[in-house]
Amino acid sequence: MPRWKKILYIVLGVLGVIALGLAICYWLNRPDTCHQGVERIDDECVGVSGDGYDFDTPEIRDVARAIARENKAIAGQPQVTVAMMLPLQSGSPALRRQMRSDLQGAYLGQLEANEGEGEPPKIRLVLANPGRDYDHQSTVVDTLLRMADSSEDRLRAVTGFNLSLDATREAVERLTAHQVPVLASRITGDQIANDDGTDGLTKLRYPGLARIIPTNYEAAQALADFNGERGRENRRTVLVYDTRPDSYDESLAKAFSGIKEKGPAGPAAMPFASPGIDTAGSTGNQFTQIANNICDSEADTVYFAGRTLHLRIFALKLAEMGCENRHYTIISGSDAASLLEDMSAKDWAQLRGGAGGQPKVTVQYAAPGHPAAWSTELATWREKWDATHDRAPTEAELPQYLTEPKAALDSLNKLIKATHDKGIDLGSTPNLLDSRTMLVHDGLVTIGTALHQVQSGGAEKVPSLADVGREWPQLQSRHRVRGTSGLICLTSGGNPYDKPVAVVELEPGQKGLGKLRFVGLGWPTGHEQPKNCVIPSHT
């Protein structure tokens, strides 16, 4: 054999061995995927999908497929992508049902935003799972940033965000730093919000961030104002707070501490330490001691800064102590919206106490919305009107801050019925009591409003990232968003101006299970939003 052939065969052999080695290395180290675009990291499926994948969570399977069908229905039309980012896997059945409520709201909001002919762009909705507690948010943010730069995906907004955590803040910070607009529909932590400064002249920490829910500080002010003397009498109030690092708990504790009280000093704040958002640990033992200390004080109103799981345990422990037949009211923030689903028949009986008596413990919290809010408040308003007038109010005299949200809620209920009549399965009939479906729906409608406002030129010319981010502060006055959770009027910092909270209470019944009762609206400023939602200056 000629020498050159020997050399050629040797070279080819070496190259073959190298190629085989590389193939084996790739095979051994290839990403483990759950689905196209979704990577398996430990026991979680992390990534982005808009084709109906359910992230191994059966509860969201039907609504994920409904979203995929809507995405397919708008194929070929001018469109942009909006990502719904929130944890989509959990070992807790209650949390999985909450995910379904969130996605039902997203789907219904997508449908509403996509209504009408000749109104581009349409919204293609994708689901983005950052893992439990947003632990793998950086991986998902990498994907979203690529989608924002892609001429095919044209990602123009990211919404969702249901937990005020450091990891959530990091995700929002990075997205907005790359000019990707973010609309946070359900985070209340004051750390994930822009300061409005003086008429927007202050540089924004999160450029392009909008929020449609009051911060914990605003919710605390609304609750204190709603409760009047009881909520501000120093000797009758006590703060119980979680010391575990958690943006929601920290900002809520700070907000409750900032309520201006009067009169003689009450008991000092009482801390506890939980091991995690969904882990009880020894909190029951700690709450026994705290409840005993509260019993020995004059306090009967407890401001509770902690997550839903621990709120439930604390309420039951306080009811169990008895405290010489005294009644206590526990006041908490928006995370408590999940509490109703977690209550068992035994829990209700413990809160209820003895037959025929007043419940031992009432849990009150600031919900982002409630389906009975607008009709109840409007009926009360009409009663007051009738007592002082001998004629019916004109359309212009009706309270806009009640009538417009009621009309939006009526439209949502009609949309839910129409969806059911068409045979579209969302996994369950949307339950508006926990406010999740309402709020997330309002978030998608707000995004759709911003997209339609900034659309210009030909239908194929989609708004830029910067265009959408700059549009948030314009959504006020005449361009206010009529949300089911209230009028959404965004400030120069992208915050909802004087957005009301629905003050609700868990009401143990004398027989069977209890219910969630709407008791009134609380306003962060202490009064209703101005006519046409014209935001006043700070001066």
Shape: globular
User: Can you name the CATH architecture of the largest domain?
Assistant: 3-Layer(aba) Sandwich
Structural class by sheet pairing and helices: alpha/beta
The tally of helices reads 16
CATH topology of the largest domain: Rossmann fold
Please identify the top-level CATH class of the largest domain: Alpha Beta
Low-confidence region ranges? none
Regarding quaternary structure, what we see is single chain
Cα-based radius of gyration, to the nearest Å: 26 Å
Number of domains: 2
Distance between the termini: 95 Å
Please give the share of residues in helix.
40-55%
The strands making up the biggest β-sheet line up spatially as 1-2-3-5-4-6-7-8
Count of individual beta strands: 17
Mean pLDDT: 91
Q: Please, what is the CATH homologous superfamily of the largest domain? A: Response regulator
Largest sheet: 8 strands, mixed
Residue fraction in strands: 15-25%
Structure description:
The protein has 539 residues and is α/β, with parallel strands linked by helices. It folds into two domains: 32-212 and 402-417 and 434-497, Response regulator (Rossmann fold); 217-367 and 503-522, Rossmann fold (3-Layer(aba) Sandwich), CATH 3.40.50. It has 16 helices and 17 strands. It has helices spanning 3-29, 61-73, 93-113, 137-149, 166-177, 216-227, 229-232, 247-257, 283-295, 308-321, 339-342, 345-352, 373-388, 400-421, 436-454, 465-471, and strands at residues 33-35, 38-41, 44-49, 79-85, 122-129, 155-160, 182-184, 209-211, 237-242, 270-272, 301-305, 328-332, 361-367, 481-483, 486-488, 501-507, 515-522. It has an eight-stranded mixed beta sheet, sandwiched between helices. The chain has a seven-stranded mixed beta sheet with strand order 10-9-11-12-13-16-17. Strand 16 (501-507) and strand 17 (515-522) form a beta hairpin.
